Amino acid sequence: MWGYGGYPGSWGFGFGWIFMIIFWGLIIWAIYALIRGFSGHKCCGGHDHGGHKQGEKNAMDILKERYAKGEVNKEDFEKMKKDLE
């Protein structure tokens, strides 16, 4: 009388399983995001929004290295240093 499930809304058009997968996927994603947040990982794909980690070079460090190697002369170094500050 009511179709496949015996009462209205029991099986609908057969797409209920898609919404169930989306629902559980969101639940799992939320739990994962919370665990990552509390474990100290960086947000936004690992971008650091502040100082730099030890071992990472910022622009000034790279400029100083290039100057030390002789890739940049003193005039260019001073100009680039002003731009970075």
Taking all Cα atoms into account, the compactness measure Rg is: 28 Å
How much helical structure, as a percent, in the residues?
Answer: 40-55%
What shape does the CA trace take? rod-shaped
- Strand residues, percent: under 5%
Question: In brief, what are we looking at here?
Answer:
With 85 residues, the protein is mainly alpha-helical.
Structure description:
The protein folds into 2 domains: 1-46; 55-85, no CATH class. Helix 2 (59-69) runs antiparallel to helix 3. It is an all-alpha fold and 85 residues long. It is 53% helix and 0% strand.
Task: Give a topology summary.
Layout: H1 16-38, H2 59-69, H3 74-84
Helix pairs in contact: 2-3
Features:
85 residues, single chain, 2 domains, mainly alpha
